Amino acid sequence: MVSVEGVSGFDVGEVTMTGEMVRLQLKKKGVEEKNPDFKKVLRKSSDKDLEILQQNKAREKEALVRSRAIARRLKLDMKMSEVEIQADGRKATFFYIADDRVDFRELIKLYAGEFRLKVEMRQIGARQEAAKVGGIGSCGRELCCSTWLTDFKSVNTTAARYQNLSINQSKLSGQCGRLKCCLNYELDTYLDALQNFPDNAESLQVAKGTASLIKKDIFKNLMWYVLPDSNKQYPLTIERVRKIRQLNMQNVVPDTLDPVEVSTAKPKEEVESGFVDLVGQISLKTLEKADRKKKHGHHKHQAQHNSGGVSRGGRDGKPADGGGGGNRGGQPDSRRGREGNAGGNRDQRKSGPPPPRSGTPPDKTGAPPPQDRNKKS
What we know:
Elements: E1 2-6, E2 9-13, H1 20-29, E3 41-44, H2 47-58, H3 60-73, E4 79-85, E5 91-97, H4 105-115, E6 118-123, H5 126-133, H6 157-162, H7 169-172, H8 187-194, E7 203-206, E8 209-217, E9 222-226, E10 233-237, H9 238-249, H10 284-312, H11 334-351, H12 370-376
Parallel strand pairs: 5-6
Antiparallel strand pairs: 1-2, 1-3, 4-5, 7-8, 8-9, 9-10
Helix pairs in contact: 3-4
């Protein structure tokens, strides 16, 4: 921060560029290096200078509210946009917007008596006001006029027509209420691309009637036409339009337009056979499916193990009848194995003790009930 020469005092500024870049910027703006209007740098700003600057900057918001009330009281057709007070507090610049000329001689006297400083009135446009206020555009970025754009060129609806944009005032207007400055950014590219399209091709004569041009696609080099009896749009190549145009000049009417087919589907990406990218192909669903398969295989193996133990014998450890049979080739026979399992289960049910009757508590020692002992004796 440096203190520079101001109006009957000093002001505080910030150094943003030094060296050869300053000379290049002066040359780009067309400003002479030894311009007498340049303010002199007095010194590096001290703590006292910065403190005075902060105090005067805090007064700007209150001064803006008060200045609007005074202008409204005088019934002046103007809008106060911003107030800038010099760092030393001796001068204030009032920025306003007005459609016509405004006689503010009485207003200056009231401002000088109200704020006790020198008053300067400066008229600005809607774009300059938006640059001072700032904001976010419809593109999601900060406004161009508040960041880098300093030269405001005129924008009209012709630029939108060349770019095949619908004339929608709400979409084409910026925060300043005027047409967006970005409409001029790609205008030169569109004008260069439109030079390859034929002129005087707004209408073509065919057997079904007069085909009217509705739009030009510079990206696909197509011209879209529509017939009077239908709303269907027919895309034609530039060569086809020129050929039909030449036939019409020779008083020849072709039968059809011969439109081309336009596919809106995206082409599938070809995967190289020699390389497969596995990064990012494993999802949570794949892991869950693998976990389910693992659990299912574990339960199945456990069930087979339990069924094999029953087929080999009962509780007493004796082999079941027919459970150990085999076929002639030395391989186990599934049918005989199933029969052996069934036989072993029947023998187990016959040889085992009967279940206790309802109401009779079981013996903790594992001995059969008394009635079973009597029967055996």
